[in-house]
Amino acid sequence: MANEITAYSGPPTLETYDPNWGARWETIDQELQRTRKEMEGMSLADSRHASAQQLADDLNHQLLDAFHAQFRTAADYKAWSLEKLKEKADRCRKVLILPDLPNDATVPQIREWIANGYEMIEGQDYRRLPVGQPEGVQAFQSKLPLNATRVTFYLSYETLGRFYDARVTIEQTQRQAFVCFHHIPDSISMTPTNAIERNATVIRTTLLPHLKTENITFFIHVPSAAGGLLLGEKFSKVDMHWSGDSYTSPQWTHYKVVPPAIREAEIKPYEEPPWCEKEPAPIHPGSYSGGRLATFGNWLKKKIL
After folding, report:
1. What is the percent of the chain with per-residue pLDDT over 90, rounded to a whole number?
2. Mean pLDDT in residue range 139-152
């Protein structure tokens, strides 16, 4: 019939598509911010802390789903993902070659295609460690234990004319702390591996002076993008001697797997502390300078204690 309306025959709409994804994202984000604010006033001993942490984790996943719901078709999802993959390939100085993705691809197929892209860039087959829980390491599991808190942040400071930086993940209970220093690809500072004693001393003296030495465990994570083709990804525990004011004599234990939370920290946006504009007195006289460490210590104590 001449007046018959022809059905839309373009690329199929993804089942996750939501035209109101923006409002959905805002609603979830507001709830997440309220939850985080409530958690700031809770101690780890508070019975509400564990349930609030679980809610925050769930909201983070919902936030990611809401963001991806903006893509109507596989082509839309592919275009955005390809841009991100190319940015990462450029940072890692890698060539990205991916098979074509059909216009009728499903969400699981698209996500597998994206994962394959990251594997190609990272060289997982011969440079990335498999994800797993290292023997004897109880920290950095995918699910945060009850009465524990975890934060990933960017640490930078200058002392004696030399610049240091690292991405840091701290998981802590009231009596124990696990600290992992992550190498940062393309950083021009001394690597966390070479600066392990100094970085560990900074964390111990500014954030964890209340804990016993035997209750603080340090780790180093070298992502494959930072380790290069020959070194590859590394995850290691570092035992050191505490002299009372500094760490010395690092001893390394290398693992064949990397914990889930450490792998996730590679792509998780870190929380950047509010830096102080004025130069404060050194936290550790004769050792550290720079305006960042004073406010850094106060800011992070609120996050992990």
Report:
1. 21
2. 85
Strand partners, 170: 151, 179
CA atoms within 13 A on the CB side of 205: 20
pLDDT tens for each residue of 191-215: 888 889 999 998 998 888 888 989 9
Tell me how far CA of residue 249 lies from CA of 12, 166, 199, 224, 245, in angstroms: 61, 20, 14, 26, 14
Give strand pairing partners of 218: 179, 238
Residue 12 class from Cβ within 10 Å (0-12 exposed, 13-18 middle, 19+ buried)? Answer: middle
- Rounded distance between C-alpha atoms, residue 251 and residue 234, angstroms: 15
Which residue's entry shows tokens 């101690």? 43
- Check residues 205 and 277 and name the one with the higher pLDDT: 205
Place of tokens 């460490």: 293
Task: Provide the pLDDT for residue 156.
Answer: 78
Q: Cβ distance 69 to 21 under 8 Å?
A: yes
Please give the single-letter amino acid code of residue 181.
F
Residue 159 to residue 241: CA distance in whole angstroms? 22
Nearest by Cα to 203 from 155, 163, 139, 235: 155
Asked if 220 contacts 194 with a C-beta cutoff of 8 angstroms, the reply is no
